[in-house]
Amino acid sequence: MRDDSDVHHDPLADAGGAVTRRRLLLAAAAALVLRRPSAWAQTRPVHRVAWLSGSREADTVESLAAFLDGLRNLGYRQGDNLVVEARWANYVAERATQLAAELAALRPAVLVTQGAAHGPAVRLAPPLPVVFLHSGDPVEAGLAESFAHPGRNATGISLLALDLTGKRMELLKQMVPTLRRVAFLANPEHPGEPRELAASRAAAAPLGLAVTYYQTRTPAELDTALVAVAAARPEGAVLFSDALMFGQRQKLAAFFLQHRIPSATGWSDFPESGHLLSYGPERRAAWRRVAYFVDKILKGARPADLPIELPTVFEMVFNRHTATAMHLSVPPAILVRADRVID
Question: What average pLDDT score do residues 15-30 get?
Answer without folding.
Answer: 41
